[in-house]
Amino acid sequence: MIVQLHIQNVGIIDDATINFEEGFNVLTGETGARKEPCYRFY
């Protein structure tokens, strides 16, 4: 199970950490909100 996602220097993201909690987690955002770097690696 993925517990934490850390992204550095990818696209427009300089440094970001996402902590996932137990249960169901969803990444959402408007079109063009730059979600792609978060799921592109899977």
Task: Give the helices and strands, then pairings.
Elements: E1 4-10, E2 13-19, H1 36-39
Antiparallel strand pairs: 1-2
Written overview of the protein:
The chain is mostly beta strands and 42 residues long. It has one domain (4-39). The protein has one helix and two strands. Strands 1-2 form a two-stranded antiparallel sheet. The radius of gyration is 11 Å and the shape is flat.
Order of helices and strands: EEH
What form results from the Cα inertia axes? flat
Helix-and-strand structural type:
mainly beta
Mind describing the biggest β-sheet? 2 strands, antiparallel
Distance between the termini: 13 Å
Order of strands across the main sheet? 1-2
How many extended strands? 2
Radius of gyration: 11 Å
Mean pLDDT figure: 76
Structure annotation, total helices = 1
Roughly what fraction of the amino acids lie in strands?
Answer: 25-35%
Number of domains: 1
- Give the helix level as a range of percent: under 10%
In the predicted model, the low-confidence regions spanning at least 5 consecutive residues are: none
For the structure shown, list the relevant keywords.
two-stranded antiparallel ribbon, 1 helix, 42 residues, single chain, mainly beta
